[in-house]
Design brief:
Elements (H helix, E strand, L loop, with lengths): L5 H14 L1 H4 L2 H5 L2 E8 L5 E3 H9 L10 E11 L2 E10 L2 E12 L2 E12 L6
Parallel strand pairs: 1-6
Antiparallel strand pairs: 1-2, 3-4, 4-5, 5-6
Length: 125
C-alpha cells in the first residue's frame, strides 16, 4: 500500500472481503460492498453490472475449489472519495491482473469499477 492511509486501507479491506468465499456466497454481503452503479470487465471479457455479478456469485456452488489468492496489492488515493487498487490473483490455476476503483459513499467505501485481465507466465508482465 502507498498513499491515502485510511482510505486505501478501507478499500483494501473491502477488496479482501470480496475475495472471501463466505462473502462471495452471500448476495447480501456482496451487495453491501458494491456501489449501486457498479460495473466490471471480467477476465472472460464479459461486462457485468451489479445485479449480474451478484447473481453469478450466488450461483457458484463449488465451495471446495481453491481459495482466491491475491498478491501485490497496492493502492493510491486519487481524490478524497476515490481509491485505485491494483493486484494480481490466482484461482484454480488461472491468473489475472486486477484494477479496482472504490468510492466513498455515505454508507462507506464501495466498489465502483473492477477490471480483470488474464495473464500467463509471471515473466511476461
Amino acid at each position: 500500500m502507498r498513499d491515502g492511509g485510511a482510505a486505501v486501507e478501507a478499500a483494501v479491506a473491502g477488496e479482501l472481503r470480496l475475495l472471501d468465499p463466505g462473502v462471495r456466497a452471500s448476495p447480501e454481503l456482496v451487495g453491501a460492498l458494491l456501489h449501486p452503479e457498479f460495473h466490471e470487465f471480467g477476465a472472460s471479457g464479459r461486462h457485468w453490472d451489479r445485479a449480474s455479478i451478484i447473481a453469478a456469485l450466488a450461483g457458484i456452488t463449488d465451495q471446495e475449489s481453491e481459495p482466491i489468492t491475491a498478491t501485490g496489492m497496492r493502492g493510491v488515493q486519487l481524490a478524497p472519495d476515490l481509491v485505485h487498487l491494483t493486484f494480481d490473483t490466482e484461482h484454480n490455476g488461472s491468473r489475472a491482473h486486477r484494477s479496482s476503483l472504490w468510492r466513498r459513499t455515505p454508507s462507506g467505501w464501495l466498489l465502483y469499477f473492477h477490471q480483470a485481465t488474464p495473464f500467463g507466465d509471471r515473466r511476461t508482465r
